[in-house]
UniProtKB/TrEMBL annotation:
Compartments (UniProt record): Cell membrane
Record carries keyword Zinc: no
Record-level GO BP terms: cell surface receptor signaling pathway; cellular response to lipopolysaccharide; immune response; negative regulation of T cell proliferation; positive regulation of T cell proliferation; T cell costimulation
UniProt keyword Membrane, yes or no: yes
Organism: Astyanax mexicanus (Blind cave fish)
SUPFAM superfamilies the UniProt entry points to: Immunoglobulin
Stated name of the protein: Ig-like domain-containing protein
Length: 204
């Protein structure tokens, strides 16, 4: 009986100890996890966007030896990846996306997206291939940056024909105003001449 109580007490204390330490364990795990603050980019349809990415802090030792292996993707698809001169552009992004190799070798892994479409809006994430440890030959993908891209409709351009009509209308309004001013001034001068003439004739 005493042995049972002793065993139960030890088990209960261990459970309580784990329960009390659990919040602290979770906090340490969260703090130890590398965080990448999401940034926002807002552009108009048809313009270009640069999704910022800097891998120098992580790939500093790798940059001097070889070009980093970078990958950009959305939640649903692969957008772009580059390793040295070799690169891949995802479906729908052909000839519109790039991470210049010369900049990548310096640690700038920013994605350049040209001719932005409305459907390009969304969250983009960049990943860098790194070794699991300094001596390990195994690699893993490490999240570098998360970017939320918002796309706004560009203001519709005014047709050239409508511009010509508006300019012509403005010129006509200006011409009519000038003509009206001239017509008003002529009778005013005649009237003044007539009044002066009649006044002189009265006193002669």
């Amino acid at each position: 009986m005493h042995l049972f109580l002793l065993t139960f007490s030890m088990s209960y204390c261990s459970t309580m100890r784990v329960t009390l330490l659990q919040p602290f364990i979770m906090l340490i795990a969260v703090c130890a996890r590398p965080l990448s603050a999401q940034i926002s980019v807002i552009v108009n349809v048809g313009s270009s966007a640069v999704l910022h990415c800097d891998c120098k802090p992580i790939a500093s030792s790798q940059l001097s030896k070889q070009s980093p292996y970078i990958k950009w993707r959305t939640t649903n698809e692969l957008v772009f990846e580059r390793l040295g001169e070799e690169h891949f552009q995802g479906e729908g992004y052909e000839d519109r996306v790039d991470v210049p190799e010369d900049k990548l070798r310096k640690g700038n892994c920013s994605l350049v997206l040209k001719e932005v479409k409305a459907e390009d809006a969304g969250v983009y994430e960049s990943y860098l291939q790194v070794k699991r440890s300094k001596r390990s030959i195994q690699t893993t993908w490490k999240l570098i940056q998360s970017v939320e891209l918002s796309v706004h409709d560009a203001p519709a351009p005014v047709p050239q024909q409508q511009n010509d009509i508006e300019n012509k209308s403005d010129k006509q309004d200006t011409s009519m105003t000038s003509s009206s001013a001239g017509l008003i001034s002529v009778p005013s001068q005649i009237l003044m001449f007539t009044i002066l003439t009649n006044t002189l004739l009265r006193y002669t």
